[in-house]
Amino acid sequence: MGSAILQAMAVTCELTGTQLSEGAARVMARDLAAYPEGQVLGALDRCRKELRGRLTLADILTRLDDGRPGPEEAWAIVSPSLQDERVTVVWTEEMALASGPAMAIMGDPIAARMAFLESYRRLVQQARDEGKEVIWMPCMGWDVAGRVGPLHEAVRLGRLTRKHVTALLPPGREPAPAVAALIERKGANGPRPRD
Asked: What are the Cα distances from residue 2, in Å, to 10, 30, 35, 88?
């Protein structure tokens, strides 16, 4: 583990009033070593700003930014497609899997949301524990014209490649070359999409 993470851990512990024994600090550092340094530093930074009490490993892990949306954002992305099969969404593997339990009880929107959130949190933590990269994929609604916006937005955010999206759209629905170049450039700053 890099010295930057050890230093950030020490500062975060000090600012949150957390005292760790040498053994506990060593175990925490070993557990965090499984994650990319930038994600851990970002999570520790959020802990310093957000925590009102003692620092725990769970506090750090739940704040890792690995490209997966938080639970509420994930629900906001998924819920329109669960209520209307015409809607196209671009979602992660974990969002797709967590939508199953929610879909089964969509007649009760509050229970569906709670089922999704519980399942999604568990699946995201499992994926992070296994070191799995985030994978974005489209879930195509049956409204062909309604696919254009969500797919182009996914390219802009770097979640899907332009090549992938072009193959999914009907002929003549690709963006103009100047717009496509702008989307590609902007998407290059986001997470790496898969072809």
From this structure: 13, 11, 12, 42
pTM of the model: 0.71
For the chain, the domains span 3-61, 67-83+92-135, 144-195
Q: Which residues pair with 136 in a beta bridge?
A: 92
- Mean pLDDT (the chain, rounded): 87
Question: Of 25-39, 55-69, 93-107, 167-181, which range is least confident?
Answer: 167-181
Residue 17's region, left for phi above 0, alpha for psi from -120 to 50, else beta, is: left
